[in-house]
Amino acid sequence: MEEESVEKAQAAGRQPRTFTLDVTGARMGRGGFDAFRQSFEAQTGEPWPLPSLDLGKRGGFRIRVRGAVAHDTLISDVYSEQFLGQPTVARESGDRFELHLVRRGSWRFSSPSGRGDDVTVSAGTFIARRNNPPLLFDVRPGTEATVLLLPPEVLGRDTGGRPVVGPSDSGEMRLLTAHAAMVRETADDLSTVGLRGARDALIELVRAVLRHEFDDTEPRLARALARAAMDLADEHLTDPELSPATLARRLNVSVRTLHRAFTTAEESVSAYVRRRRLERARQELLAPLGRPTVSELAARWHFSDSSHFIRAFKKQYGQTPANLTAASEERTRRPPIIGE
Question: What is the CATH number of the domain that holds 37?
Fold first, then answer.
């Protein structure tokens, strides 16, 4: 999908807004950051100032990044195999706001002099801060994070300019994460006006995270709210209490607001949950070993009984669970045909 989007952008005579950088190769060693910088500038075509890093004796720079540029904001998903370095100047050019949301591993921020704050952001938490003064980065191998770079005024008066650390599972952060993912995935397909709107919504959601509240009547946030609800539902498909009411409560919105947001998704909240549960049931039916019975699947995925499950399954897939498993077993028994 991303490659197709890049091709569309190039065909339209426009610099691709998405980029992929990979300097995880073992031979990169200490030259990884220089290779990263060159590739970054070539792909983004933007004057994004990167920090000047001293990797030291133990340092190294091996990371993989998938990201997108939306005007004066940048969204990236980062995987780090090795990242330990400190800035080489007292202040960086290109003052900006940074938000690091760590999904796996940890990311340590500390003062090179040892006299400032020392913060380790572990999985499930985030830090929002200005990039000046620069800090030493010590990233645990295998760390995965979403990193946002935005104009410095985003922090504004909400925090007094101080760094903010918090959990990643708040309703506001879930909306921000969902929206950032959508922008990164679709940036090359958006019009200039659409990209500006996506950028403005991104900044509004960051401010919502800092304020611990957001305007649930803002129409630009509807798609992000629906995406966040879908992601949350996917995490709790086996929960018997999963419902529009529980999703709305976790996201700090009314049920009415949640239903209104799902008009952008072309299916209701309940329809989405039912479809995803049936998809999971189908995966289990196609498993070569330990295949559950229909009654077990109906109970596991919270259908009232086997008959209800079978009807819903046939409506979605055009065949019953029994037809599906029989066809799967037939394909397994059939000897391969040369040339297939």
Answer: 2.60.120.10
